[in-house]
Each structure stands twice: as structure tokens, then as C-alpha cells.
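SEQUENCE-TO-STRUCTURE ENTRY
===========================
What this section holds: a protein sequence and its matching fold, both as plain text.
Question of interest: how does this chain fold, as expressed in C-alpha cells?
***
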Amino acid sequence: MPTAIITLVLTYVCVQYLTGDKGFFSQESRDRDLVVKEQQLAQLKTERADLEARAKYLRTDNLSKDLLEERARVLLGLSEPKAYVIRGPIVQNANS
């Protein structure tokens, strides 16, 4: 009886070693995931650097009037300095 239990436990451990989440055969998928995550990290780092630069120029001690005007246009829905966007009522779908 103990031999059968030890055999079952060893079989289970071997199967998990080969096919589990961190098993031998899943190494390629983990490598692909790592490459994708590294690309996302690089993209987020560049986005963060851009946002930090914009935030630096929007502070009161170092205010860029052009950047402030651009952000105001985006937030207010203006496309050009003399143009206005008129938004209609929001209609919700009956299915949602």
C-alpha cells in the first residue's frame, strides 16, 4: 500500500513538473508573455515620461501658455481657437 501511494504522489509531481503552470512545457508561453509585458512596460514608461513633462509645464511656477490652451481646448471640446462644438443630448440604447 505505501508503494502505491508513493507511486501516485511521484506520478502527480512529475505530471505537474512537465505540464503545470510553471512546468517544463510551458516555458515558451512564459517567454512570449514576458516579451509582451516588457513591450507594454516600455510603452508605459514613455507615456509616463510624456505625462511628467506635460505636468511640469502645467505647474504654476513653470507655466506654458500654449500647453495650457491646448489642454483647455481638449477638455472643453474646442477644435480651433475660435470654434465651438455643440453637443446634443445623450441618448441611451434601450438594450443597455
Observations:
- The two ends are 60 Å apart (CA to CA).
- The chain has a mean pLDDT of 79.
- Residues 24-84 form one domain.
